[in-house]
Automatic annotation (TrEMBL):
Protein name: TonB-dependent receptor BfrD
Residues covered by the TonB-dependent receptor plug domain: 78-176
Locations listed in the record: Cell outer membrane
Organism name: Paraburkholderia saeva
Extent of the signal sequence: 1-21
GO biological processes: siderophore transport
Keywords assigned by UniProt, alphabetized: Cell outer membrane, Ion transport, Membrane, Receptor, Signal, TonB box, Transmembrane, Transmembrane beta strand, Transport
Length: 736
């Protein structure tokens, strides 16, 4: 028997062409056909008069996406994007009762979660082994605020894998994540959803859409929630509203004005400390902090978009977004594990190995108080032109991105009298007492970091169609990114840098039939030291880190086009990673590489049975480093990840579904001192669908598996326990 490694097996799978799938299998349902290739569409437009279609098939319950704008700035058939793309549609989120951004990303293989860390709050994620905290977008604009995102106004979440600075500028080492907002249309709608669940979870959402003329409509989405947790003490109270108006629907000129206003009052979860190289074996609900800890976040985003279609082959767009994010945090994190009850007791390090019993160990609690303000102003203008040079057809997108960003972070030290600086209490590792923060705490303002950045990016990309079966994609972008930071206390007191970088992207696509597509691609990106407008002293004079990606893959539409199957092999490498030498100085002498395989499924197996899922194998390694981590596995990069969600319509009204999420073991930090075990979480649902209403029941983690969701590299490595068994009941009512 010949045994193959996962990579070898993946290579065989990528190049195995299942021709029998189209000849031996008949369509099980009248599934939506895949998007027509650009070449065929252009040919038709040159020979037939244009026809404006105003009707639209109802695909609101479909798991199978056909297009995405994340890979080309404009809606593009997924088969025409030479990179791996996962689109999580609204139908999947509703079926899972996934209300948070983090819950939605469980459907995306290769995404791992981080928790509140250092000066970072909100959604912190890794994508294919690299941080993507600043690679989150909303309708094509960088959504750089540090807040906990919600799905109440989203139609989908689109994930593009691999370095993508061509369209997005700085960042995107592992890829980008774009949130796609719901859009006004000419169909009247009034939907209300109420939800209640165990652990005192309550949530309400509203979706109203009202045509105001034959070519204009107004839409507003809103939510409010009061969420408890299987973790002790944790409580979140949030609300938000997203109004949007669109003029000129279906006409050559469309204008869209939108806003997102959200308020969060949450409790940041800094997890549990490590012990003997693993998360401390304490009860899942154990919370290290105070009952009145809170994180107050306010988000205000305002966007304007105008699109003018001169004709079928020429379109001009301009978009502007103004955003403000503010955070007032009074938080507590478990810092060192101590061998005694005093703040001066010996602290454990390097995985916190000890032979002492749990009852003899204590945890130092430190304050994480800070006020953060983010402002951003973005403007993008792009021109899309379709034309032919002889038998060669072109689809060119060129444009300019302008940005201005500011950031301030006022930190504080909070100290209980009699304790060392920034120490609030020392509590037992096991069964700490839950109290409010001591009333006599001394809070002193410390460092104020203020930074700003201005950016300009010029880009052009051409998708060249060579006959019916071949496409060549090539693009280039030039960026100028100028940033500065001023610290009132910390070093450096003041630093500024101006970075110039040219990014490229190239790909070749072969489409022998209308149901299969094969591609190879190459892309680059860059990461300046001041990318997130924060800076570690000693990095201010370093040039940007550089990233490159190679990918080969296939995209098939099987079962008559009803089921999409995607596969890819990838290699992402950060060739000059920042690393610290023995003297404490930073140099660009590091090298981090992640190789792997990815599989994706989305769509109908039969007219009653839908699936959505994926698998990723990631082999990550620190190839070079000056800090002793060479040969180690990058933080929060599991070897295997699998997600699968499936539903089956027992009758036209009754539907059942469920599936697993699997993540193998991973490390909390690059030093590999702390390992967090793998887990499989199972969810299930049952729903009754009527014309006017739906009743849905979801059981999350129905085996009550104890697992760790998010990882934090500091303080020896901490891990945040995942949600325990939770039951949710949801009623959706449609007035129209």
């Amino acid at each position: 028997m010949i045994r193959t490694t996962p990579i070898a097996a993946a290579i065989l799978a990528v190049f195995a062409t299942p021709l029998y799938a189209q000849t031996a299998t008949q369509p099980a349902a009248p599934a939506t056909q895949p998007a027509q290739s650009a070449a065929t569409a252009d040919s038709a437009s040159n020979t037939l008069p244009a026809v404006k279609v105003t009707g639209q098939a109802d695909t609101s319950g479909d798991f199978q996406p056909e297009t995405s704008s994340v890979g080309a700035k404009v809606p593009t058939a997924l088969r025409d994007i030479p990179q791996a793309v996962v689109v999580v549609p609204k139908a999947v989120l509703q079926s899972q009762a996934a209300s948070s951004f983090s819950d939605a990303l469980r459907n995306v293989p290769g995404v791992t979660l981080g928790a509140a860390e250092g000066g970072q709050i909100g959604n912190n994620i890794n994508l294919r082994g690299f941080t993507a905290r600043t690679d989150i977008y909303l309708d094509g604009f960088r959504d750089r605020g540090q807040y906990y995102r919600d799905t109440f106004n989203l139609d989908s979440i689109d994930v593009l894998y691999g370095p993508s600075s061509l369209y997005f500028g700085r960042g995107s080492t592992g890829g980008v994540i774009n949130q796609v907002s719901k859009q006004p249309d000419l169909k009247q709608r009034a939907d209300v959803s109420v939800q209640a669940g165990t652990h005192d979870r309550y949530r309400t959402t509203v979706d109203l859409n009202q045509p105001i003329s034959d070519t204009a409509a107004f839409r507003i989405n809103a939510f409010g929630q009061d969420l408890g947790s299987s973790r002790d003490v944790m409580k979140n109270k949030d609300y938000g509203v997203a109004p949007e108006v669109k003029f000129g629907i279906g006409t050559p000129t469309e204008i869209t004005l939108s806003a997102l206003i959200q308020h969060n009052r949450d409790q940041a979860d800094y997890g549990v400390p490590s012990l003997n190289g693993h998360p401390a074996p304490v009860n899942r609900g154990t919370f290290y902090g105070f009952t009145d800890d809170r994180t107050m976040q306010d988000v205000q985003q305002f966007s304007a978009r105008i699109q003018h279609r001169f004709n079928e082959n020429l379109t001009l767009r301009n978009q502007t977004q103004i955003a403000h994010y503010s955070t007032e945090a009074r938080e507590t994190n478990p810092a060192a594990v101590l061998t005694g009850p005093l703040a001066t007791s010996t602290a454990l390090t390097n995985g916190n190995y000890t032979t002492l019993p749990l009852s003899s160990l204590y945890v130092k609690l430190q304050g994480k108080d800070r006020n953060i303000n983010d402002h951003s102003l973005y403007n993008t203008t792009d021109l899309e032109a379709k034309f032919a040079t002889g038998f060669v057809k072109h689809d060119v997108i060129m444009g300019v991105d302008l940005s201005h960003e500011t950031y301030s972070n006022q930190s504080f030290t909070a100290t209980t009298p009699g304790m060392p600086s920034n120490t609030l209490a020392v509590v037992p590792l096991v069964d700490p007492t839950y109290t409010t923060r001591p009333s006599n705490v001394n809070e002193v303002a410390t460092n104020l970091a203020e930074s700003s950045a201005n950016g300009i990016g010029l880009y052009a990309n051409d998708t060249i169609s060579l006959g019916e079966h071949w496409k060549v994609v090539g693009g280039v972008r030039w960026d100028r990114y100028e940033a500065s930071i001023n610290n009132s206390i910390n070093l450096p007191g003041y630093a500024t840098q101006t970075n110039f970088f040219t990014s490229v992207r190239g790909g070749v696509i072969y489409q022998p039939t209308d149901w299969q597509s094969y591609y190879v691609s190459y892309g680059t990106s860059f990461d300046p030291s001041l990318e997130a407008l924060t800076l570690t002293n000693g990095q201010q004079n370093l040039p940007p880190e550089k990233n490159r990606s190679y990918e080969i893959g296939s995209k098939w539409d099987l079962l008559g086009g009803g089921l999409s199957v995607t596969q890819s092999l990838f290699n992402i490498e950060k060739t000059n990673a920042r690393t610290q030498d023995a003297t404490g100085a930073y140099q660009l002498e590091g090298d981090i590489r992640v190789r792997g395989y990815q599989l994706g499924l989305a769509g109908h197996i039969t007219n009653k049975w839908q699936v959505f899922g994926g698998y990723t194998y990631m082999n990550g390694v620190v190839l070079e480093a000056l800090d002793g981590t060479a040969g180690k596995t990058p933080a929060n990069t599991p070897r295997n990840m699998l997600t699968l969600w499936t539903t089956y319509d027992i009758t036209p009204q009754w539907q059942v579904g469920g599936g697993p999420v699997y993540t193998s073991a991973r490390y909390a930090a690059n030093n590999n001192y702390v390992s967090v075990g793998g887990y499989t979480r199972w969810d299930a649902m049952a729903a009754y669908h009527a014309k006017k209403y739906d009743v849905q029941f979801n059981l999350l983690n129905f085996t009550d598996k104890k697992y760790y969701d998010a990882l934090i590299p500091s303080d020896g490595g901490r891990a945040v326990p995942g949600l325990g068994r939770t039951f949710l009941a949801t009623l959706n009512y449609r007035f129209f």
